[in-house]
Design a protein that fits this description.
The chain is an alpha/beta fold and 317 residues long. The chain folds into two domains: 224 residues, Alpha-Beta Complex (Spore Coat Polysaccharide Biosynthesis Protein SpsA, Chain A), CATH 3.90.550; 69 residues. The chain contains eleven helices and ten strands. The strands form two sheets. An eight-stranded mixed β-sheet has the order 7-5-6-4-1-2-3-8, with helices on both faces. A two-stranded antiparallel sheet has the order 9-10. Helix 5 packs parallel to helix 8. The radius of gyration is 25 Å and the shape is elongated. It starts with a strand and ends with a strand. This is Glycosyltransferase family 2 protein. InterPro entries: Glyco_trans_2-like, Glycosyltransferase_2, Nucleotide-diphossugar_trans. Keywords: Membrane, Transmembrane, Transmembrane helix.
Length: 317
């Protein structure tokens, strides 16, 4: 019997854990697959870890991994995927906005020889706040325009990955990994299915506008050098444009025309000074990513778990 691993990153989700486990057991009671559920506690400040431990004592298929601090959702996904032992891995959120019933359809596509089955929102999330809706649209439009990958608007971390895709993802050694983009980048045979997110069972989304903005910048720079080409183009345009000013200077000098307008000169200097700082800032961000990658620090640190892995085999503690 094939085995499916469910990887669930959890950050302050204490009231959602038991409900999600219950839904998964109902689902897999009607599916001819073994399964395991791996919760990755990403530095929660509430009672999330204890709730997960309670479920591990009740259900032998439930496991937990506790990270040493809050490393981020993508790093938590990376930790869970490293631990998974199934023939396929399904990643999903803990708040039940990703409907577990959709797993049945995802598995059907997997059995039709698709290596990746991902989901995207069919409609705008009616339960999201206004700034979240706007920032989400801007995020995907900006990412698609400036990077070398194309993501559907509203693509989610609710996806199924075949074990051969998981093997490739395990070999990646990126410090700030963006899983949604990386899954697209690795290729294989992929298909997307739409879904309508349910209302969050409990709690609040932890992504602020600043975090979304930071995620957008890191995502673009992880998959493209287009921003560097763009600022180079801007520099060339302004350099060529400045050459057109030379005839005016020569004519003014020959005709002894006193040129006034210190305000316009100062404004021009300030504009070009700001432009140079902007260009240097983009270059600096790329250098910063290279600096962090060169340190070779781990993307996550595990504080505790109810199992350990050796050569991708589970060994019960």
């Amino acid at each position: 019997m094939k085995k499916i691993s469910i990887v669930v990153p959890a950050h302050n989700e204490e009231k959602n854990i038991a409900a999600l486990v219950s839904e998964l057991y109902k689902l897999f009671s009607n599916l001819a697959y073994d399964f395991e559920c791996i919760f990755v506690d990403d530095g929660s400040k509430d009672n999330t870890l204890n709730e997960i431990k309670i479920q591990t004592e009740i259900h032998p298929e439930v496991h937990y991994v506790e990270l040493a601090r809050n490393f981020g959702k993508d790093q938590a996904l990376q930790a869970g995927i490293q631990m998974a032992t199934g023939d396929a891995v399904i990643t999903m959120d803990a708040d039940l906005q990703h409907p577990p019933q959709l797993i049945t359809e995802m598995v059907k596509y997997w059995e039709q020889d698709y290596d990746v089955v991902y989901t995207y929102r069919e409609k705008t999330n009616a339960h999201a706040k206004t700034y979240q809706k706007v920032s989400s649209k801007l995020f995907y439009k900006g990412l698609n325009m400036l990077s070398d990958i194309q993501l559907e608007d509203g693509i989610a971390d609710f996806r199924l990955l075949d074990k051969k895709v998981v093997q490739q993802l395990r070999q990646l050694n990126e410090y700030e990994i963006f899983f949604r983009g990386m899954v697209k980048w690795v290729g294989f045979r992929q298909i997307g299915i739409p879904y309508n997110p349910a209302e969050r069972l409990s709690g609040e989304a932890s992504y602020s506008f600043f975090k979304l903005f930071k995620l957008a910048i890191n995502s673009i720079m992880s998959f493209s050098v287009k921003p560097l080409y763009m600022v180079t183009g801007v520099g060339i345009v302004f350099s060529v444009g400045s050459l057109l000013y030379i005839p005016y200077i020569i004519i003014s000098y020959l005709l002894h025309i006193n040129v006034s307008g210190w305000a316009s000169i100062i404004a021009t200097i300030a504009f070009f000074g700001g432009l140079q700082l902007f260009v240097l800032g983009i270059i600096g961000m790329y250098l910063g990513k290279l600096f962090m990658q060169a340190k070779q620090r781990p993307s996550f640190i595990i504080r505790s778990a109810n199992f350990i892995k050796t050569d991708y085999d589970l060994v019960k503690l």
